[in-house]
Amino acid sequence: ESDTASEISFQFNKHKKTPSIGSHSSDMASVSSVSGSVLSVYSGDFGSVDAQGTVEFALDYDEKNREFQVHVSQCKDLAVVDEKKGRSDPYVKTYLLPDKARMGKRKTSVKKRTVNPIYNEVLRYKIEKMVLLIQKLNLSVWHNDPLGRNSFLGEIEVDLASWDWSNRNLNWYPLKPRSLSAVNGVDHRGVMNLSIKYVPPGSLGKMCPKNPPSGEVHIWVKDVKDLLQLRPSGVDSFVKCYVLPDTSKKSYQKTRVIKRDTNPVFNHTIVYDGFHTEDLKDACVELTVWDHEKLTNHFLGGIRLGLGTGLSYGISVDWMDSTQEEVAFWQEMMSAANEWIEGLLPLRSL
């Protein structure tokens, strides 16, 4: 039923409360620190401010350094957020859409007490030209609030495939109201088709030669649909798996790479032994999908299967953040010992 069956032990110091458990470092952690959630394109409090004014910027691509550059010059006649004080504290934020995770956001400094801010800053993205041409630039202006309730002041979206790259001049563009259509579905990263099963210790009977002395969690990664396409030829994807909080090499498993396919079929089974029933409340199976390249792998999306309590063995951890769908999937596995539980779960930024 699968091309590969890997069996590894689930082992970590459950009672040793060290900083490494609460603040584990993995490929996931390094990516999420720069990417953030895609929906943070529109994070903050929109308030009742109507978009108005213009923004002056220029776009360029540095072929030598393989760098996309957004030269943000200035804005004029922005909306006033604090009418009593007659002030706005604006800054400019950019995203490449659809969110490719590794790109993250870029933003300028905040200019205080002005509706005509001057920035003269360059926001830079290290990216291949052919990848850039299948994306859109979202440039938005925001009022910075000390309490974090930032107000949206306007935006512009540029289709980079049709952009005139010979035009390196600064030009003025009108700011538009926020696009709700851009929020809906902007974080669609694909869907993973998988099955999981928990085999409690000794549950198969004494006469069974495969009766595990300790519990086992079986993970059958079948396929993924509608992955983000990072290049015209498709995507070369593979799946990584960890059982958190263990991020050691013993916990790490991965599938083979499926080339040039946004709907890869993996059919790969992983078995983790060393699981006791009580561990299921504190552990989390993290499955992440990556695009494989020679120099670096790019994060495409992932899921975390667990109870989503925010705690692991009494320690607060940021990775115990499963969605309602992921929690329900894990709970169904816990309540149906020795049975395969099938599911389709959307990939997300982690």
Automatic annotation (TrEMBL):
Origin: domain of life: Eukaryota
Key words of the record: Cell membrane, Exocytosis, Membrane, Repeat
GO function term, MF aspect, one: neurexin family protein binding
Keyword Iron in annotation: no
Compartments where located: Cell membrane
Pfam families reported for this sequence: C2 (PF00168)
GO cellular component: exocytic vesicle; plasma membrane
Location of the C2 domain: 51-173, 188-320
Listed PROSITE patterns: C2
GO biological process per UniProt: exocytosis
InterPro entries, per the entry: C2_dom, C2_domain_sf, SYTL1-5_C2B
Protein name: Synaptotagmin-like protein 2
Species annotation: Gavia stellata
